[in-house]
## 1
Amino acid sequence: MSAPDEGSLVRSYVITGGRAKPSRADIDVITLIKATPSNEPLHRLNREKRAIVELCRGGALMTVAEAAGYLNLSVALTKVLVADLVDEQLLTTRTAPTSTPATDRTLLEEVLNGLRARL
């Protein structure tokens, strides 16, 4: 594995204003995000924030991790930007539903059975 590109680290630092953590504790990689219904022009936003809002304007919920993947941004950077956009009321969040351990075990068993059936 190669070392991170120094230029991208500096750029991330500039984009977030030097912040490494989101201003909101409720933003996680599995937090669901959606654009708020707004016709507010996005020209005042930086390129990355504008891209996140435009991606989320499709109407479907997506996780912070998905948005980071689509936009080729780091998850840490995306979390900070999403928190800013929530504070600016351009995005809304919803926590992903958590499942009970029994559901997780059942799901894993189903996946395992499906894989065994294919082999």
Note: The longest strand covers residues 32-35.
## 2
Amino acid sequence: MIKYIEETTDFLKEKGFENPEIGIILGTGLGQLINEIEIITEISYNHIPNFPTATVEFHKGKLIYGIIEGKKAVVMQGRFHLYEGYSLQDVTYPVRIMHKMGVKTLLVSNASGAINLNFKKGELMLIDDHINLQGGSPLAFKGVEKLGTRFTDMSAPYDQKINTKLRAIAKEKNINLHEGVYASVLGPQLETRAEYRYLKIIGADAVGMSTVPEVIVANHLDLPVAAVSVLTDECDPDHLKPIDIDEIIAMAGKAEPEMILLFKELIKSL
């Protein structure tokens, strides 16, 4: 993997990706932050050596380099998921590339369902902790100790300094920012009523199909990371209706401007 990382990083540097400070991963239906970036260069995933290719129709599949709030940033417009058939190493490979290029802070967004029924669709949740229900670890491979500590500490996976700043920005900008625990499942099927009840019992406030692998690898690399969920639906097992993916994507788009404001103000302060 070290050889692959070097090949990919060298390729991107040749394409103009120079010394980025911020890494951003944009989740399902959350691509509008791109409009806030002064784009210097962009490249499709399928043109990048050793990179996976996004297969989900609402994920664009581009790596973008540019300036946002005066900072150089590399942005994933579209991420990878286990449910697309990738390995956990594939899903997290871009985080390793961002780190190798020099990124000092990683910001992650996702669309998720609200398990905590005090949270409503269209609102945001700052992730304070997570539960990994994806059935594996992106660190469970031979030679991982050459890239970072094998037994990575996860007592505080989300950077508390960044989270404190995000709370302060939300208060200042009158953004209703909840805080809670994110459960990451394999998917791609949505949860049953019994599964939603189980998630609530074990302490989850929201559920989705991403983010946790990338956060584990960020911690493996000592890369400060923060993540915000856009809550796109309410997972009430007693009043559950058939899922409408188009409605979820539309809700993500509706709530996205507040997430963009949070990220922009945070980047300005870093």
Note: The first helix runs from residue 2 to 14.
## 3
Amino acid sequence: MKPLSKYIDHTILKATATKTDIIKLCQEAKEHDFFSVCVNSCYVSLAKAELKNSAVKVCSVIGFPLGAMSTIAKVEETKQALKDGADEIDMVLNIGLLKSEDFDAVYKDIDAVKKVMPNNTLKVILETCYLNDLDISKASALAIQAKAEFIKTSTGFGTGGATIEAITLMKNAINNGNTKIKASGGIRDTDTALQYINLGVDRIGTSNGIAIVTGQASGDKSY
């Protein structure tokens, strides 16, 4: 198993996050050797500058948190985030179209984003709290079909975060394929993080990364 810190996407996505918050996030990520920081797209260039000459990657969310904007908007946001220095993209799947069973549109939405970032890691956020078992399996299959490198449980802004049940369904959809899983939402301590890693999760999205790697309790009840 790789070091626990290397599973962590150190995250701040709340609407009130300031430039000072982003700078602090980056300093913490360097100090604790996290895999990446995950920020809203307006802060990608700031995070990239703060992380210069470090191994920490920059991840940007796209179409966040609802996933309900046009595909063109998602593509353009992705292009700008990559231009600003993003290494990875976490895009929100169009949940309404999935619920409408317009699976072709859901696939094309993901595919359009992946096509403008062939050499970068794409994670597709399913927002599993709004999905039943069949939805989770279908959403996972569509993201895999569109060649996303990861499927991800949650934005942290829905009614719930990662669950063992959702992760199990996502694993089953991947079967023996190469797609990886990112668990996010509600992961705030070492034991919970290890539980998901032992299930086969490759990345943890959390604002409680320091608490997870130090084994200390965190009062932060956000992402």
Note: The longest strand covers residues 57-62.
